[in-house]
Amino acid sequence: MPTLPTLSAFIVLVFGMALIPGPNMVYLISRSICQGRAAGLISLGGVALGFAAYMVCTVLGITALFVAVPYAYDALRLAGAAYLLYLGWQAVRPGGRSPFATRHLSPDSSRKLFTMGLATNLLNPKVAMLYLSLLPQFIDPAQGSVFEQSVILGLTQIVVAVTVHASIIAGAGVFAALLGRHAGCISIQRWIMGTVLAGLAVRMASEGRR
Fold first, then answer.
1. Are 149 and 1 in contact (CB under 8 A)?
2. How many other CB atoms are found less than 10 A from the CB of residue 188?
3. Dihedral (Cα; 140, 143, 148, 153), 10-degree rounding
4. 183-206 vs 70-92: helix axis angle to the nearest 10?
5. What is the pTM of this model?
6. How far is Cα 182 from Cα 6, in angstroms, rounded to an integer?
7. pLDDT tens per residue across span 77-97
């Protein structure tokens, strides 16, 4: 098991990383502002599952494929960029509604929100790189099972990230009612979010392998 100083340092580090804006944060804030707090939390469930999937893959050593097979990183990176472009197009397409527009959630819509949150996280290769490059730095074989330490650190990162994002969702949801009173704000938001998502997609696609 990691020592208390090691675990404390890890928590501080992943807390700071969770506050850095990225695809997950943009998606969750947009959902919360334009569709309500419940939608943001449903999407966060998908994001959390994505973290868990990458954590399990890292613990089992599967994520090492991104290093052993260089094109694996590129394939996931480009797929993630294409997905962000799709979200951006849905926001600004003529006659369309923003995927972040406020509306009542049916069970199908809830499932879709969860799936989109999961996809947003899984299609971000930086999450895989985070686990692969970060966890080994805090693992000390002298402290016991490497597998156990990896699981504890991975679960800690998930708890910290989910807590930070949930707090952001709680604050963002307050603005949903204000947007509902001004129809023009929805139109402006659609174009702002479409532009932001497209910018993130271009940035992700243009980044080289590290």
1. yes
2. 11
3. -50
4. 160
5. 0.67
6. 49
7. 677 677 667 767 766 776 655
Q: What is the dihedral of CA 114, 116, 122, 123, to 10 degrees?
A: 180
Taking the C-alpha atoms of residue 77 and residue 64, their distance in angstroms, rounded to an integer, is 16
Q: Which of 153, 133, 134, 154 is nearest to 53 (CA)?
A: 154
Give the number of other CB atoms < 10 A from CB of residue 172.
Answer: 20
- Do residues 78 and 202 make contact, with C-beta atoms less than 8 angstroms apart? no
- Distance, CA of 121 to CA of 47 (rounded, Å): 6
Three-state DSSP at 49 gives helix
Q: What distance in Å separates the CA atoms of residue 181 and residue 193, rounded to the nearest whole number? A: 19
Amino acid in position 32: S
Q: State whether residue 166 is helix, strand or coil.
A: helix
